[in-house]
Amino acid sequence: MEVITVESKAYKELVAKINTIAQFVAEYQSVNAINPEEEWIDSFEVCSFLNISQRTLQRLRSKGAITYSVIAGKTYYTIAEIKRMLNERRIRSSEEAMQNLITNHQRYVEQRRVAKANK
Question: Coiled-coil annotation: which residues (predicted)?
Fold first, then answer.
């Protein structure tokens, strides 16, 4: 059996590089594994990123302007459905707002994933 001796500083640098690579791979997989338009987001996220109130969102649901799903009393929407509604000009917004919604949702999901892993 061959034994290799490494200085502490060199070992720590090697571990830091491995952690950086592992983090990059994890981020790359999480971003590319799921089509962002198929993601489900809750009412809070929709209202926050479209700058509309809960009541406005409720009116859109009541009018049938947006499809949704309710699970355990919580309402969810797909990003594709919100995009469809925006494209029909039912809510004045821009493609930039939609991209912000997708980006912020991905950050939110990552924060939840990290928080869950740290429990």
Answer: none
* Domain boundaries defined on the chain: 40-118
- Tally Cβ neighbours within 10 Å of residue 86: 18
Determine what percent of the chain is predicted with pLDDT higher than 90.
40
Q: For residue range 26-56, list pLDDT tens digits in order.
A: 887 766 666 777 889 999 999 987 889 999 9
